[in-house]
Amino acid sequence: MKEKVRLAGPVDLADKLEKSRAMDRPIRVLAKAVREKIGPGRLRDWLHGVPTGKPLHPPLATVTLGCWVSVAVLDLMNTDPKASKALLAAGVAGAVPTAAAGITDWSSLHREQQRVGFVHMVTNLTALSLFSGSLLLRMAGRQGGGKALSMLGLGAAAVGGYLGGHMAYRQAAGANHAEQVAHLVPLGWHDLCPIKDLPEGRPVTRRLGYIQLFVLRHGGGVSVLADRCSHLAGPLHQGRLVIENGEPCVVCPWHGSTFRIADGSVKHGPATAPAPTFETRVRRDGTIQVRPLT
User: Fold this and answer.
1) Is the model's pTM score more than 0.70?
2) What share of residues in the chain are helix, strand, coil (percent, to 5)?
């Protein structure tokens, strides 16, 4: 006998929506507090990894977790406890900038990513507490209790690492969303549009094949970037134009990443990868031609 499938009604959907909003409330509050506490500027850019062009959180997390895994190996081998304490201390100290970089990145993600990231953060804070307790016990001469807390901490860190991997590889948090386009466009110059069709000083979007472009006519010339923000693929043509140190830039409307229009370089995060840039020229008949810079 076949069972009847019960579809969710309006009341069920409203119930789920209300529960989802309630669960998201602490996430919204915390993310807003982080953005206000670590506002736009040099510190925030460093924590995102803008100066290096790569996210800062993953390498810091690798070093911290590596210290703690090494402690577990030394504990299993019953080696000199001084080495274990030194690695524990290094891991605990490294967790502080790791957490600062991680929560800064997390505050500028989509809500679905923030939900997973919130649990990732809680598990890693649990791991930090356990490893810190382990260090204190070892310093007090209680090696057995210290080893037990280290193993529990490693379990919590493993769960946190799994969730971090899910965010990076399944949800693409921290990945470059503005793929380099040189290999997607045939060699040579390509007609884009008549220059007379472009408004002066206001960015618009145009297509080159299936690639969406940010196009800005200004001062008699035309600047063209890939339209997708490298942070989370926000539409740059909907962003606002600003002047940074005398240079025209565009600010992504989603999370505030700022790109230099002349070459697509990142002025401010959370983006770390530059926007792909196109070389332009105008034919005698007024048609704009573009080709990607390699």
Assistant:
1) yes
2) 50, 20, 30
